Amino acid sequence: MTGPDFGRLRDIRKVGDWPPGSLLGGLGEAAKDGFLALGRPRQLAAGETLFAEGDRSTDVFLLLDACVKITMANEWGRTALLGLRVCGDLAGEFAALDGRPRAVTAAAAGHCLVRVIPQDDFLGFLRRCPEAASAVQRTGRAGPRPADGRHAEFGTLPALRRLARVLVELAGHGTDVPEGLMIDVDLTRAELAALVGAGEPTVHRALDVLRRGGILGTDARRIVVHDVRRLRGLAGLGGRLWEYEVPA
């Protein structure tokens, strides 16, 4: 996968192809254009950190062409995956809003194109644009600031369940299609494997298990979830826990 091209920003703004569950996807044109005019563009390589837990920085990141993993260290020193943020979302807004140290770490899951917005510009825009201010309050793809260390130890779960949790999170940005729910996040298999925390062969086998079970369908870059309820059950997020074994 090649790195994002700054020239794509013009195409993205023209098409307005933001996932419907994202911050930008829910805004009117004026508020959307106002957000896109803030800050400066920046490219990040896969694995590069936007900000780290404990940082005193207050910049906000508007994700234009990106998938970002939000993690937090628990009390045992292990890393818990709290959520994903993708194109059209913000990352880092909590520190800008309350001035406290970063509560989580945000890292690029692949090559990313973002806009870096200084705190003063971000807060000033929210004061001028009530629609944007309300949307920021409603959204927050990693959830509210963690109040304690009680988070699922993502790394201790079986690979298939980790994959299911990632896919459930990504499906929040999906689009209804005749076959089910198409995940609108452009991820290579390598990037998906990085999010799951497993090798590509393991993720490939896990996807094959889900395909054979009728839960989803895939092609080179496209994933369509046929049965969200069963996927959530497999992820341990409600419903029956469907048990599958990933071949070694």
TrEMBL record:
<dbReference type="Pfam" id="PF00027">
    <property type="entry name" value="cNMP_binding"/>
</dbReference>
<dbReference type="InterPro" id="IPR000595">
    <property type="entry name" value="cNMP-bd_dom"/>
</dbReference>
<dbReference type="InterPro" id="IPR036388">
    <property type="entry name" value="WH-like_DNA-bd_sf"/>
</dbReference>
<protein>
    <submittedName>
        <fullName>Crp/Fnr family transcriptional regulator</fullName>
    </submittedName>
</protein>
<feature type="domain" description="Cyclic nucleotide-binding">
    <location>
        <begin position="23"/>
        <end position="131"/>
    </location>
</feature>
<dbReference type="GO" id="GO:0005829">
    <property type="term" value="C:cytosol"/>
</dbReference>
<dbReference type="InterPro" id="IPR014710">
    <property type="entry name" value="RmlC-like_jellyroll"/>
</dbReference>
<dbReference type="InterPro" id="IPR036390">
    <property type="entry name" value="WH_DNA-bd_sf"/>
</dbReference>
<keyword id="KW-0804">Transcription</keyword>
<keyword id="KW-0805">Transcription regulation</keyword>
<dbReference type="GO" id="GO:0003700">
    <property type="term" value="F:DNA-binding transcription factor activity"/>
</dbReference>
<dbReference type="InterPro" id="IPR050397">
    <property type="entry name" value="Env_Response_Regulators"/>
</dbReference>
<dbReference type="GO" id="GO:0003677">
    <property type="term" value="F:DNA binding"/>
</dbReference>
<keyword id="KW-0238">DNA-binding</keyword>
<dbReference type="Pfam" id="PF13545">
    <property type="entry name" value="HTH_Crp_2"/>
</dbReference>
<feature type="domain" description="HTH crp-type">
    <location>
        <begin position="157"/>
        <end position="229"/>
    </location>
</feature>
<dbReference type="InterPro" id="IPR018490">
    <property type="entry name" value="cNMP-bd_dom_sf"/>
</dbReference>
<dbReference type="InterPro" id="IPR012318">
    <property type="entry name" value="HTH_CRP"/>
</dbReference>
